[in-house]
Structure formats: structure tokens, C-alpha cells
Amino acid sequence: MSTRRPPIKAQATSEDQSVTTLELFFDLVFVFALTQITALMAHDLTWHGVVRGVLLIGLLWWSWIGFSWLCNLVKADEGSVRTVLLLAMAAMFMIALAIPEAFHDLPGGLPGPVVIAIAYFAFRALHLVLFWLIADGDKTLRRTLLRFAPSMLAGTALLLVASQFHGRTQTLLWAAALAADYGGTYLIDARGWRFRSAAHFAERHGLIVIIALGESIVAIGVGVTDLPISWPIVIASLLGLGVSAALWWIYFDATVHYGEHALANEPPETRPKLARDAYTFLHFPMVAGIVLLALGLKKVLEYVGDTEHHHLDDPLKGIGLYALFFGVVFYLLGHVGFKYRTTATVGWSRLITAALCVVAVFAVAKVPALGQVGVLAALLAGLVAFESVRFARERDELRHGHSS
What we know:
Keywords: Membrane, Transmembrane, Transmembrane helix. InterPro entries: Low_temperature_requirement_A. It is a single chain. This protein is mostly helical. Helices cover 74% and strands 0% of the residues. The chain is built from 14 helices and no strands.
């Protein structure tokens, strides 16, 4: 009796699967892409420019998310999967290279908006075809992929249409493209997806948060690249690093653990829906918030270091100030939503801190930029200190599996 040959060479993951080095290599293009987006928003520091930056983050996020699901089922560094992953990495690198021309094509060369649309289609097509091949024999998953394909095709088609327009029309078409992609995925019955390893999924998303936080640190350095080192730069840099460290603590001290535990304990039939809601959707405001924070930190360092154009007592104004504080607000609200979805409890301390950040935006409007980032650092330090004491026992149980 002849054995049916599988359509693609792939090795299934185990329940305790760890993130592979190829997945980490794959993420390097996202480091570059996030840096490009921050630079683009800093160059076009208008509300329209910020909206476009967030749309680009949404495009990158949705690209990355697809392979986080796929590599939860098959090992990224085995068989034919690694070749497809490297090809997808090349497509994403083309998108990252073209980000400065995502909305305004520069004279000469290839049309930037078209390059992004075509590269995005190639990336998504590689993901969908590979998913289809590894779903061989799973009729339910293949039906889900067939329902998923129209939203993917609609999104990429709208991006191509958007490349032929300019200004507000182009931005609206980008928004429609992402709405089609995100909305189509949300409307699909999540029970049709497959999910194998809670440990891998939680680790994978933790690593993308680390990558985004790395961008916030890069933004501090880039903001003063051409400026002589000074005490204001040193102080502002340390405060900015303190803000990034607080965001790291907020996620990795406990959140990463209760998220993974919730996934592992969820019944198999509803586990994909929890993963979709808590990670695919609710991690987006966290990542977008960190990138907006990076933009704010970049502007703070420019204000305190560039003595030719700014005085040390100049306050950060407008979009730079809003990005600094509201980036943290979006990050904290993402955490509040994540905790509620995974544990059915409200993270009141984080919700209150987010509200205080909103109030602080208006309270520090005339405070020098160095003071503004100091206030933000103090608010987050207060949150970290409070939660360290208030949730000490729960934290110990999560991290070590026993009562203190």
C-alpha cells in the first residue's frame, strides 16, 4: 500500500515549544521597520503624519501576527518552512526600505507606495499558501483559510489602489485596507484556527514587545546623534531609559506569566479565540504605544540637547508631548484589556495611572521638556512600586508556583 506524500516538508511543534533562532532573525526586519516609522513620523510631525505612522504600525503588526500563528503549529527552522520564512523576511525588508516613500514617492527610482503594496501582497500570499499546505487533511482549518482569504485580498488590493492617490484619500484607503484585514479576521469563527503551544505564543509576543522597547531606546540615542554630550542629555536619557524600563517591568514581571497560564488552562476549543483576542488584537495598542513613546522621547532629547534651536526651559509642545504621554496611555490600556480578557479582572492600578498620564499632559504643558519626561518617569515608577508591594504574593505564585 502506497503512502500519501505530504504537500510540504514540515515538523509539528510540541506543547512546550520555544521560539527558534530563525524567528528571532525574522524579527530583525521589524526592528528596522519600526525605526523607519519613528523617523517618518518625526519628519512629518503633524496629526496626519502620526495617523499614517500608526497605519504603518498596523500593517507591520498584521504581517508579523500571521507567522506567529503559523509557527505555533510548525517549527520555523525545519523543512520547507524555513525557506518560506526567509522569503517572507525578504518581502518585509522591501516594505521597511520603502517606508520613507510609503505616502510620498521620491523623484526617480521605483514608486514607493506600489513597492509596499506589492511586497505586502507577496508577504501575505506566502503566509496563506504555507498555511494552506500545512493544513493538508484538516478540512476545518482549510475552510477557515478560505474565509480568511477574501479579507487579505481586499486589504492588499486597497493598498494598491491607495498607491495611485495622494493626501487624505490615500490615507483613508490605507485605513480601509487595514479595516478589511483586521475586521475580516475578527468576524471569522476563531474555533476554526489551530493552536498548539501556549508557551511559544506567549514567548513570541513577549519578544516583539522587547523589540518595540528596543526601538524606544534607539530613539533616545538617535535624537542626540549629532549633538555634543551634556548634563541635560545625560539626565533626559536616563529618565527615558527609566520610562522604558518601567514598561518592561509592567509586562515581564507578571503579565507575561498570567497570560501564558490563561492560555494553557483554556479549553482547547476556545483557546484560539482567547489567543486572537488577548494577543493578536490587544497587544497592538501596546506595541503602537511604545512606538509613539519612542517618537516623544526622540523629541525630548532634541529639545534638551539642541541648544541652537531650543532653550533648556522650552516645554515639549503639541504632537511631541501627546506622543510622549499618550504612547504610555495606549500601552497601559492594552494591558488593562489584556488582563481583563485573560483573568476577568480589571487592572485598576494601570487604569488609574493611564488616567493620571492624561491629566499630566495638560498639567505639564508649560513645564520644560526635561521636567515633562521626569513627571512621566515618576508616574510609572509609582505604578511599579505600588504593584511590587500590592501584588507581591500573586507575583511570587505566578513566577515560582508557590505561595510566599
